Amino acid sequence: MTLTETLHLHPDAQGIETAAALLVDGALVAFPTETVYGLGADARNGQAVAGIYAAKGRPSFNPLIVHVPDVAAARALTQWSDTADRLAAAFWPGALTLVLPLATGHGLSSLVTAGLDTVAIRVPHHPTAQALLRAAKVPVAAPSANISGRISPTTAQHVLDGLSGRIAAVLDDGPCPVGVESTILSLAGAPTLLRPGGLPSEAIEAALGTPLSQHSGDAITAPGQLASHYAPGAAVRLNATEAAPGEVLLGFGAIAGDITLSAAGDLAEAAATLFDALHRLDRMGKSIAVAPIPHKGLGVAINDRLARAAAPR
Length: 313
Ligand code: TXA
Ligand code: MG
Prior knowledge:
Layout (H helix, E strand, L loop, with lengths): L6 E3 L3 H12 L4 E4 L4 E6 L3 H11 L8 E3 L3 H7 L4 H10 L4 E6 L8 H4 L4 E5 L4 H10 L3 E2 L14 H8 L5 E3 L11 E4 L5 E4 L5 H8 L4 E2 L21 E2 L9 E5 L7 E2 L6 H17 L3 E4 L7 H13 L3
Parallel strand pairs: 1-8, 2-8, 4-6, 5-9, 10-11, 12-15, 13-14, 13-15
Antiparallel strand pairs: 2-3, 3-7, 4-7, 5-6, 9-10
Helix pairs in contact: 1-6, 9-10
């Protein structure tokens, strides 16, 4: 891969225009969403999409999420359904990704779907993501903008720490407000949770009026489920009430740490600060102990990411 100088763009009209032109031109542009920063490419351009895999060092069997500005654009790419309609009305734009069967004549590169007959599709809420998608007028494939297997980026600096010189530009609009990746729900069969994320599954179950099936874990339907994903360089120990010698502590609620996710015990605040805290603790060069996080609402997504960070690798 060739090294380039990565442009650091402001999210004003000029920055959006430049970023959109780069995308249409087949270049890679990192941009903020409400969940994490994405590494975007024109999803119809196979060479551009291949660039994502190369920049991230990502195994090529991992399919990517396609970002579009609205439901109409999502319908054009998929075999839409009543259930999709209900969920989109309730949660789009937002932190929900739907996996749906591909429409015929969808025009997406097969690298985006890794050859599957379904596509993961998302309408982000973030105003800068919305502005970029509307300006570019192409579906944008975007995984999280980090080196594969490392901690996801929630600031432009996190993006540059991993990908500077490997991508054309980053649109910098400060920290991501939700802070963990979108919830992925498959609607290819019965609604099935593939990845817990920024939209709590309780909210989806309430909207559908039925419990969700849980992903059974053998097929590669969501490779984000493989161990050693989101991993810092340091070892991670979960459910700790204090730091052992040689450890730094990530606190929560009443358990104060070297960094505390939310002293008030607020799960939304904890999700929003999780990845930045892991990036900062990782730089301290010690093992990381983590206080228990309640396993409900956004706590399910937080615990999922922490379990991956702690997985043997
Ligand atoms: O919040 C997010 O979802 C962020 C922002 C940038 O939108 N994106 C993100 O993308 O987390 P990524 O590539 O890191 O995770 C995408 C996940 C992967 O685990 C992938 O396997 C799964 O979505 N996925 C993509 N297409 C799929 C499909 N057709 N069927 C099942 N899973 C799919
Ligand atoms: Mg990722």
